[in-house]
Amino acid sequence: MNKTHHPHAARQDSTLVTVAQLAEFDEVIDVRSEAEFEEDHVPGAVNCPVLDNAERARVGIVYKQVSAFDAKKIGAALVSRNIARHLEASFADRPRGWRPLVYCWRGGSRSSALAHVLQQVGWRAGRLDGGYKAYRRAVIADLHDLPQQFQWRVVCGLTGSGKSRLLRALAQRDAQVLDLEALAAHRGSVLGNLPGEPQPSQKMFESLVWAELRKFDAARPVWVEAESKKIGSLRVPEALIASMWNGECIRLEASIALRVAMLRDEYRHFVSDPALLGTQLDCLIAHYGRDRIGAWKRLAAAGEWDALVRELLENHYDPAYTRSTLKHYPHYADGMRLGVTADSDVAFGELAAHCLARAR
After folding, report:
1. What is the band of 109 on the pLDDT scale with cuts at 50, 70, 90?
2. Residues 6+ apart with CB under 8 A from 310
3. Annotated catalytic residue within 104, 156, 249, 355
4. Residue 104 designated active-site
5. Do both 239 and 276 map to the same domain?
6. Is the pLDDT of residue 343 over 80?
7. Does the predicted TM-score (pTM) go above 0.85?
């Protein structure tokens, strides 16, 4: 018996693409609600909800309390209005050759609706097969496999020795750099919260790490700062931290006076908000007791910032960092030692050049 050929179905299937094809598109459009997008999305995607938070909740209530048919009628009207608004407000200036990729939660009706309209206009719109759920599965699989493919160069050093500065200098010289603290919006310590910049969700952090790893060439080393399992409230993916712990170490060394000066500048936001500093220091009461924390708060209140930073380094940061580094980085003792002599871009540029020369 001959099989019936359906050309329309074939055309529809040809618009479905996989996560591996993301780079083929000019723009990635996430049509899920704002809340779904905020929790996690393809890095670089734009959010054009076909149902916003309130509309999605409304349709869901009708679906549960009335019927699927009534929910679909309401949803179709809302989706149509929102697509029209996006066409006029977001896509009106896109050229004829624009190629967007659209996705929703499972690759179903929400993404199909927008993709269909974009295709009718004449744009070669693709739709992510399986939607966000397929994307998330790909992220989890890649975060398990990718880290083991790279040669890791781990920048170690006591707090305030300029590890992040060295990473930035390396990046400026086209080295492959994974700046986990920048992706996590946190400096990785009890005082590491960035003012006015909340940390991303765990899933979003993993997406950001995934996007960076996909850019790297396995034939070249990847530079990263030594971390523990958590950066603020976020967990570093297990396969990544295991690969980092087994990496080749670079040891930054700086005098206590220079470290105090660099940290004072890095944490200058606490100068204008001692109450915020006090709240953060309270997290250490269980370790050091109320008397010592009270003494540190009094130094802050008196504006004795150099004395406070030195106290924190000698009594908290240095012992904790040394214990953690020796425990997790078996190649630390054999690492190349670099002396930081000045708090300047020139000095860190010279250190970066030395690192890259040795890495060839």
Report:
1. very high
2. 256, 260
3. 104
4. yes
5. yes
6. yes
7. yes
